[in-house]
Amino acid sequence: MKTFDVYPLFNIEPVKAEGSFIWDKQGNKFLDLYGGHAVISVGHSHPYYVSKLTEQLSRIGFYSNSVQIPLQEQLAEKLGKLSGYESYNLFLCNSGAEANENALKLTSFHTGRKKIIAYSGAFHGRTSLAVAATDDKGIVAPVNETRNITFLPFNDEHMISAITEQTAAVIIEGIQGVGGIQVPTTSFLEKLETQCKKTGALLILDEIQSGYGRTGKFFAHQHSGIKPDLVTVAKGMGNGFPIAGVLISPEIKAKHGMLGTTFGGNHLACVAGIAVLDIIKNENLLQNAATMGDYLSLALTKTEGVSAVRGNGLMIGIDTEAPAATIRKQLLEEYRIFTGYSSSTKTIRLLPALNLKKTEADTFLEAFSKVLTSQKVIS
Ligand SMILES: Cc1ncc(COP(=O)(O)O)c(C=O)c1O
Predict the structure, then answer these.
(1) Residue-wise pLDDT tens digits, 113-126
(2) Nearest protein CA to atom 3 of ligand 1, as residue
(3) Per-residue DSSP letter, 138
């Protein structure tokens, strides 16, 4: 049997990783400014994370959600404290799409309504409702097509009145990631919150890419001061161990059997989640993400060949005069630096570990500037 060939692959085989570095089979060292797509939050192979997971695995790795797993409560309590959502409840699952799927379903259960508002440029995952709320026809199968989802223009305050008494949920990313690092304005988010309250629609903030400290606050929407009814998390939550969750307002009541999953909230996943939160807190990583993010963004705006810099903290989108795909390839092949790319907007995406060091940021800035200069010479 072979694997189903759905991913275009770089010819690189990582065999070891530490902090913001990866080594391939040939012993080449790479600087990782992509964090495996915003997943590596506390750095690769963090010793505290490794020891906690190893210790747990040697005791018990998994049992189903039919028994007491106090680690789930520990995780919920720590997440509540660190994120400022102490009064919310946590539903644990395994991936970002699953978190959004459950969040959307929950809003429909709660309101008895069917209509969902999503935004242009949105990416919410690949399961049925999540993909239907994703603005990319190429990944929506005919069976996923539904009239229940309406897309509105991102950041367009004039269209707020399209949220009505028929709307079950409005779903929006804290900062659009796949859509090219597009930041919702504070005024837009405030108007969304007000209109949702007015109509009884529930507001879901998808913080799967923009959350977990990436922007210098625990959640990107906390820069605006709004408080959504549901927040979805994944990626950085487990630093590579699959775990995701939905933070649910106490207004929404649980009922046995309403949601469920076999693997969600298993012992290993919870320990990974707890270790990540401990490291974020003990190493003050929110502050580091803010400081390093400001440092990188400021330097990038002054770099010749850069046409725009967007984002917040360590979620940075860079538009360049030369094609972003070429720049990304050159950074990887000539300078051994991993970055991300957003094909729809031709944007380079930086999503490094939250404990990125200044020396590592400088290595990137120097290489990036050289790549942009070489592109100018060539063109
Ligand atoms: C904002 C956002 N939501 C949802 C998802 C889907 O997450 P997953 O791939 O874990 O299903 C992603 C993945 O890139 C994402 O960036």
Answers:
(1) 999 999 999 999 99
(2) 124
(3) G
- Regions of the chain with pLDDT less than 50: none
Residue 186 CA, ligand 1 centroid: distance in Å: 23
* Mutation to probe ligand 1, out of 123, 231, 239, 243 (largest number of atoms < 8 A from CB): 123
- 14-46+284-378: CATH number: 3.90.1150.10
> What is the CB < 6 Å shell around ligand 1?
95-97, 100, 123-125, 173, 177-178, 206, 208-209, 234
> Domain limits of the chain?
14-46+284-378, 47-282
Q: What is the pLDDT of residues 347-371, one digit of tens each?
A: 999 999 999 999 999 999 999 999 9
CA-nearest of 272, 246, 252, 262 to 99 is 246
184 to 33, 150, 223, 311: CA distances (angstroms)? 23, 18, 10, 10
Residue nearest (by alpha carbon) to ligand 1 atom 16 = 209
Contact criterion met (CB below 8 Å) for 203 and 110: no
Specify the pLDDT at position 236: 98
Q: Which CATH architecture has domain 47-282?
A: 3-Layer(aba) Sandwich (3.40)
